[in-house]
Design a protein that fits this description.
By secondary structure, this protein is an alpha+beta fold. The protein has a single domain, classed as Alpha-Beta Complex (Nucleoside Triphosphate Pyrophosphohydrolase), CATH 3.90.79. Helices cover 25% and strands 32% of the residues. It is built from 4 helices and 9 strands. The strands form 3 sheets. The protein has a 4-stranded mixed sheet, with helices on both faces. Strands 5-4-9 form a 3-stranded antiparallel sheet. The termini are far apart.
Length: 170
């Protein structure tokens, strides 16, 4: 069995304009549908393929779904940039330069998360965190687009929003 620190994360609760209005535990934020913050990092290799991760079965949201290369919540008091670098290292063992691409407003399609999207390009091999990631591999963007069209339920809703924006704005 994989073990992880069980102390509960504390998130900033934010309003529709992404202004902090309080804080709450992860479980309270999710149970009450409170607006909060998240980051997503797309890792491309030098061939332009995107690394997808398949979430583990023990994840509290969207278990066993495919999602961004690395993603996670912004902890209370943390910036989006800090969270993106932390998640990239925690989930994939990568320390690379990242570029901010876009921020998406919180809503049902983004799991009530104001979501910042980042990009990095590297051929460094990732080391998957077994608590977070069931599996991962690089895919051609068109392969992902076709896959989403055929079986969208295999992907997290936030990833579908971010990926759609990414392919339209590359």
């Amino acid at each position: 069995m994989i073990e992880r620190n069980t102390s509960e994360e504390i998130f900033d609760v934010v309003d529709e304009h992404d202004c902090v209005i309080g804080s709450a535990t992860r479980s309270e934020v999710h149970a009450r549908g409170l607006l909060h913050r998240a980051v997503n990092i797309f890792v491309l290799n030098s061939q332009g393929q995107l690394l997808l991760q398949k979430r583990t079965a023990i994840k509290d949201q969207y278990p066993l779904c495919y999602t961004s290369s690395a993603s996670g919540h912004v902890d209370a008091g943390e910036t989006y940039d800090e969270a993106a670098r932390r998640e990239l290292e925690e989930e994939l063992g990568l320390k690379t330069d990242i570029d901010f691409l876009q921020k998406f407003p919180a809503g049902p399609e983004t799991a009530n998360e104001h979501s910042a999207l980042y990009l990095t390009v590297t051929d460094e091999p990732p080391t998957f965190d077994p608590f977070e990631i069931e599996a991962g591999a690089f895919y051609e963007l068109q392969t992902i687009a076709d896959w989403i069209e055929k079986t969208p339920e295999e992907f997290t809703p936030p990833f579908r929003v971010l990926f759609d924006w990414f392919v339209r704005n590359r």
